[in-house]
Design a protein that fits this description.
The structure is a single chain. With 188 residues, the chain is of the alpha+beta class. The chain has six helices and nine strands. A hairpin with a 5-residue loop joins strand 3 and strand 4. Helix 1 packs parallel to helix 6. The protein is globular, with a radius of gyration of 16 Å.
Amino acid sequence: MGVLRHWERILAWLDDYAPSTGSAFVPNEDAAAVEALADATGLEPPDELRAFWSVCGGTANLGFAEVLPPFYTPLGPTNALRSWRLKARFRPDELDSEAGTPTTGYHPLWLPIAFDGCGDALALDLRPGALRGCVVEWDREGQEMLKPEFAGFGDMLDEVATALEHRGRLGHCEPLITADGRLGWRTD
């Protein structure tokens, strides 16, 4: 189906059931923002992420729109670069590891894609290896990543869209709608 189709499914669901969350997203940023991120980080955003950023620039003023469970809001390229720079102080001592392997510290080959407002992040793991491109969750408090959360960016959006459409579980989370029309995720 593709990243854009999965994002359309999510937006359609939000429009019907959680319009306050759906209205928080802003259109794409200028393509120069993606190139600035690539130049500054040395990381080449995968095609799926570039496709997503071609239609979504995250949220205005880093407003919360927790569409990615359990409480993550997608970032546009400018804020992804800002997040990557902020996490530079958490670099691991050991940089020679493969994609998807547990890591202490924030690896410089991770590209932030979503934030939670507390310093945690979802990131694409762009280290070499068979799991290159998987989505990892970095816990700021523990300063660690334990395992991949999704096989890739497109897989993540597909799984989120399916969970929303079927009001089903995604890992330890299930979608809920607040009284003010926001999407939240109930966790075990």
